[in-house]
Amino acid sequence: MQNNKPLFDMNRIARLRAMPTGKMPSKALLIGSLLLSTAVQATTLRIDNEGEPGSLDPQQSNNLWDSRIQRELFDRLVDYSAEGELVPGLAERWEVSDDGLTWTFHLRDAQWSDGQPITADDAVYSLRRLLSPAMANQNANLYYPIVNARAINTGKLAPEQLGVKELDAHTLQIRLEQPTPWFLQTMAMSEAAPLPRHYIEANTQWINPGETVVSGPFRLAEWASQSKVVLQKNPRFYAADDVAIDRAVFYPIDNSGAALRRFRAGDLDISYSSVPSTRFDWVREHLGKSLRSGPLNAEYFYMFNLRHDSPLADKRVREALNLAVRRNVITGQILGMGQQPSYWLVPHATAGDVRSRMAFADMPMEERMARAQKLMQQAGYGPDHPLSLTLRYNTSEDHKKIAIAIAAMWKPLGVQVKMVNSEAAVHYASIQQGDFQVARYGMVATVNDPFDFLGSYASGGSAARSSGYHSDRYDELIEQGNRTLEPQQRAEVLGQAQQLLLDDYALLPIYDYVTHHLVSPQVRGWQSNAMDIHPLRWVSLAPES
Amino acid sequence: MLTYTAKRLAMAIPTLLIVITVSFFLMRVAPGGPFDGERQLPPEIEHNLQAAYHLDEPLPMQYLRYMGNLLQGDFGPSFKYKDFSVTQLILQGFPVSLELGGLAIGLALIIGLPLGVIAALRRNSTVDYMVMGVALGGIAVPNFVIAPILALVFGVLLAWLPAGGWNGGALPNLVLPVIALAIQQIAYIARMMRASMIEILGSHFIRTARAKGLSERQVIWRHALRPAMLPVISYLGPAIAGIITGSVVIEQIFGLPGIGRYFVQGALNRDYTLVMGTVVFYGVLIVLMNLVVDLLYSALDPQIRYDD
Questions:
Q1: Which of A9, A130, A271, A454 could anchor a disulfide with A48, C-beta 3.0 to 4.6 Å?
Q2: Do B40 and A432 touch, CB atoms closer than 8 A?
Q3: Among A463, A311, A320, which Cα is nearest to A389's?
Q4: What confidence category does residue A35 fall into, taking pLDDT thresholds of 50, 70 and 90?
Q5: Average pLDDT value over all residues in chain B
Q6: Distance from CA of B284 to the nearest CA of A (A)
């Protein structure tokens, strides 16, 4: 765990400030004022947060940019380190029973920003609130492993029947319906943050700048919608001494070109907007010291519609389409931003060591194409009977370039591609309704676990519902993997599940995502990580060397 | 005048009603819903969301509910920006757009009117060609091209002004967006003023004024300028409404918290209540702007009397 001490001795600055200027030597005055101005600038961090927060109530939103702010305001029982690893948060320790069904969290002595103690009762209240149907939380299903959670979230039981209990003011017990290896990950999500029961029950509109009661390293000082969110250090945070940043300003810049200009102009210390691919080479050359790149827990793939009336119901066609795609051309020549060609669904950045891959991954391209053409012939397609396919993608220059390239790669197989571009809402609605043949898709992990990806293709999962994929064996393996607590054994089971999915050519993986953020060289303690989570608690600012 | 104003306002009610109704149903038939995103929601969660926003009710019921709330001045909660009501968002965004738009129109008038007059007075001269050439350029180059160039040159390379951000409406933050917004309007106003001035200068009453021995300056200031401005005045109504509603691109590029951003983001997110709120607001604004322009017209042209 990293400990960042404040870079400036504020007491010394205060003493300098208090000294009558008449008594102060002119040189000392100059040094003092320089020190003062540097100190004021140095502890304010200016962040491009991509978008305007939908809500700062941790249970009311599911955007990345919402949770970036929520995490600073409301600490969770389990926290993230700068490296993106789980570390103790409001709970200083926890244990799980041997059967994996009972989790006990021991809360540290901590206070809300109004001085009230943070208790296990706040955590119980918060989880009940999260699962109440009226809250309509979009990630509530991740908490369904808790006893009665699904029934409560569907309105069949009262929230009081949730399997969470306050054993004493500092001890929280959570009972699960089945062992869930990724459960601890969900407790680090912003949704799971204990909330100030005493304050929320007294205020219907409780997110009010200057008043909101928080538990995290920062308080909400100002929120000018679509302009900025200003956070101020919370002196009552349990580790306030370790927090080096006094003030953080989040700007909702939802235009990557504008974000780049503002970063170049020195208006920002951190930019979370992705670097535009057209400007990437320039950024690498001119802002190399600021460019922070790293793998991300996210996968870019094409989803196939496998229903009976689709030509893609034929596995030979799906395999042929997979064989013909030169992923290294897409990642190397079309995108050129360090993405990793993918022959799997679970990105390699994901924890859990699930490393299965498509069988042809190492086959030379000539052999791949020969096999692909043979498979297409066997499926009844050829020059006289070309396969017509509709390929859907959502509006983005990169998606368009990839779609054009893949259509060209499929052409030697006699595949005629009709491309359909639509904005995101229409695109995803079409996928959800099964109204597509091949569709561009992106999956970003909410928890760092292979289940987050593989579960979507199991019965009832979102990808299974959209694509029509079904395999009893696959469902069994996922179910088994979801109950297995021993990591090595679990990796094997989930690896088998993924292999089955890949052998079925149920999808067309293209690449593992990467992150590219602009971070000023003055920012210390900020690290690229697979979850792309960067708590400000570990960050400090230092003058550029 | 009062009766005329009251009549015009009364006539606006059915217009607005039609706009609201058509917008309401158009929004609902558009493909894609407010909760369709990259992460597909399980049916249970989707059901909770639909119930929370009354989207599980039949469409006519939803319409009646919306109209009922609207009559009480309630635009409802935003689907996306949940910590604010739509009314709060509009009240926060409008002053920004108004300030931007007002300054841009003001700048356009201050620069565009004299340019138009000069071009008209020096008709077919080098000055005229220069002014009209620049005006043509101003119209031809869209502001989504001009704005990033301004930000790059003055914000990044020269570092004279902020490259973006609102900063509570501080003057340095306003300069580039206002210029970017005003450039097209300057061009339109200059061209309009030139054409109008040429027409007026060729009319009988100007010839009479000149025959009476008035100096050219007196002819222009006393007799030509006011009638020549009438077409510009009538253009101002839609221009002001247009510049406030059309500053969307500029607000996006410079990251300004105006109402245009809400409109665009509301539409992209299928945030039904936010889109409806901005549509109603824009509708009222356009009706009011047109009314103000008509009243201004009568003040400037004695031949027009609305009470008759």
A1: A271
A2: yes
A3: A311
A4: very low
A5: 87
A6: 23
How far, in Å, CA of A314 to CA of A504, rounded? Answer: 10
Residue in the block written with tokens 């600055």 = A13
**Nearest CB neighbour to B164, from listed A138, A207, A261:** A261
- The answer to whether A444 contacts chain B (CB < 8 Å) is yes
The span from the CA of A106 to the CA of A173, in Å, is 9
- Tokens 């919306």 correspond to B66
**Strand pairing of A415-422 and A387-394?**
parallel
B63 belongs to a structural domain: no
What residues in A contact B89, CB-CB < 8 Å?
225
**Phi, psi torsion values for A351, nearest 5 degrees:** -70, 155
How many whole angstroms separate alpha carbon B15 and alpha carbon A540? 57
Is the ipTM reported for this complex over the cut 0.90? no
Residue A109: count of CB within 10 angstroms of its CB: 10
* CA-closest candidate to residue B261, choices B81, B36, B35, B26: B81
**Stretch A312-316: mean pLDDT:** 96
Domain presence at residue B213:
yes
How many CA atoms, within 13 angstroms, populate the side-chain half-sphere of residue A210?
A: 2
Segment A238-252 mean pLDDT: 96
Task: Enter the DSSP assignment of A91.
Answer: E
Which residue has better confidence, A10 or B216? Answer: B216
Q: How far is CA B73 from CA B66, B77, B83, in A?
A: 10, 12, 18
Give which of B48, B55, B56, B271 to mutate to test A binding, by max A Cβ within 10 Å. B48
In the DSSP assignment, the letter for residue A449 is S
- Nearest CA to A5 out of A234, A244, A218 is that of A244
Q: Rounded CA gap, B275 and B279, in Å?
A: 6
Q: For B77, phi and psi rounded to 5 degrees?
A: -85, 150
Is the residue at B114 inside a domain? yes
| Interface contact flag, A62 B39, Cβ < 8 Å | yes
Q: Which residue has the tokens 């989930």?
A: A494
Structure tokens at A158: 């009262």
* Domain tally, chain B: 1
The residue count for chain A: 545
A183: CB partners within 8 A, 6+ apart: A103, A145, A176
* Ramachandran region, residue A306 (left: φ > 0; alpha: ψ -120 to 50; beta: rest): alpha
**Residue owning tokens 């003057």:** B171
**Cβ proximity of A285 and A528 under 8 Å:** no
* pLDDT the model gives residue A498: 98
| Contact status, residue B73 vs residue B238, Cβ threshold 8 Å | no
Classify residue B101: in a domain, yes or no. yes
Residues of A in contact with B47 (CB under 8 A): 154
Domain that holds residue B111: 86-300
Residue A17 has pLDDT above 60, yes or no: no
- What is the maximal distance between C-alpha atoms in chain A? 96
What letter would DSSP give residue A363?
Answer: S
Q: What is the CATH number of the domain that holds B156?
A: 1.10.3720.10
Cα–Cα nearest to B48, from A277, A411, A131: A131
CB contact under 8 A, A225 and B38: no
